[in-house]
Amino acid sequence: MKARIAILREMGLPRPYDRSRPLEIVEAELAPPGPGQVLVRMAAAGLCHSDLSVINGDRPRDLPLALGHEASGIVEEVGPGVSRLAKGDHVVMVFVPSCGHCVPCAEGRPALCEPAAIAGASGTLLGGDRKISVGGNVVNHHIGVSAFSTYAVMSENSCIPIDKAIPFDKAALLGCAVLTGVGSVLNAGGLMLGQSCAIVGLGGVGLAGLLGAIAAGAGQIIAVDLSADKRAQAIALGATDAVDPAAPDVAQQVRDLTGGGVDLAVELAGAAPALEFAYQITRRGGTTVTGGLPNPEARITLPPVSITAEERCIKGSYVGSCVPIRDIPRFAAMMEAGRLPIEKLMTHRLRLDQINEGFERLAAGAAIRQVIVFD
Fold it and tell me: Using one digit for the tens of pLDDT, what is the confidence trace for 291-330?
């Protein structure tokens, strides 16, 4: 069948993206879903910094690539052997389609699924095949989803069914911003009632993490970002304090505010200096979680003696250390109950053909979460 997709043919084009237009909207041919696969009609797709990192070359991928990974939609067709989904189901896409059989999956850590990691790096679906072609040439999938498209074929394991009453634009954010941000705080960070928490990096994922800390009953929440506008938004959402990491003696300022540092610091900026700062403001015996994805060549410098002498913990968190089949319904219920008001993070709604303008806005720091809404 035919689909309109946003295709990336070249990474690292210069900004502004509304002029260089790295993403081209083209008509593609989709092969039908095979065993264990489904055809999804996209309803909404979010623009994420992980997509931007591919566009600007920070996270290289094989090209050409059908980009996008945070989305919601409707199952239109199921392939042979699909048992969990049926035509008409509303679904949220997850960008790690766990196989359920490898060692990490068996340990309850589907974010580390080994076949999914191989498929994501190779531009294929979980089964190793590609379903998109343009002008007879095969196009790579983006981490199993390729959401910037009117239709997409993917593994059934990339889809989590949701209540049909949930609006698609809000549902889309569950697949990345909420999973990563909220999960990094609650799952990886294990934030407990009354503890202090810092969120370092206040993009869509970071502000989702802030909402998660509020929902968990954090006693004090320090919001950290270079942008004064984002710090102000964090305060409006419920942060108790906000600091500029570029200010003089700011780490000491945070330690003074919290009586020695925060119990939990969560870095969601995707930058090595942000992780170093998060570690600096974590108290003795506290935990620093990093859920950001910096350039693979980035390095950090930390005093290793403090890890031992202060019993410090540094943890990585991919996809918020989530179990999507458990956590997406859980977070959706919190959202519907008003405890995760993620609609407050949506700053723009776009058409597919406005995608380059959207990524320029994201690169300029002029948006939190932008959502493409498909008619």
Answer: 998 888 999 999 999 999 999 999 999 999 999 999 999 9
At residue 157, the 3 state secondary structure works out as helix
| CA 194 centroid distance within chain | 26
The two tokens of residue 250 are 């700011």
Q: In this predicted model, what pLDDT tens digit does every residue of 208-247 receive, in sequence order?
A: 999 999 999 999 999 999 999 999 999 999 999 999 999 9
In degrees rounded to 5, what are phi and psi of residue 248?
-65, 140
How far apart CA 21 and CA 24 sit, in angstroms, is: 7
312: which 2 tokens? Answer: 């410090």
Distance (Å, rounded) from C-alpha 142 to C-alpha 28?
15
Contact between residue 268 and residue 289 where contact means Cβ atoms under 8 Å apart = no
Query: What DSSP assignment string belongs to 251-278?
Result: HHHHHHHHTSSEEEEEE-S--HHHHHHH
Distance between CA atoms of 188 and 191, rounded to whole angstroms? Answer: 8
- Average pLDDT of the chain is 96
Provide the greatest CA pair distance for the chain.
63
Using DSSP bridges, classify how beta strands 241-243 and 151-155 pair: parallel, antiparallel or unpaired: unpaired
Q: What is the token pair recorded at 18? A: 């509304």
Taking the C-alpha atoms of residue 238 and residue 309, their distance in angstroms, rounded to an integer, is 34
Per the listing, tokens 């983006």 go with 142
Residue 102: both structure tokens together: 């490898």
- The tokens 């990094």 sit on which residue? 184
Q: Is 194 exposed, middle or buried (0-12, 13-18, 19+ CB in 10 A)?
A: exposed
**Calpha distance 157→100 (Å, rounded):** 9
Is pTM, for the whole model, over 0.85? yes
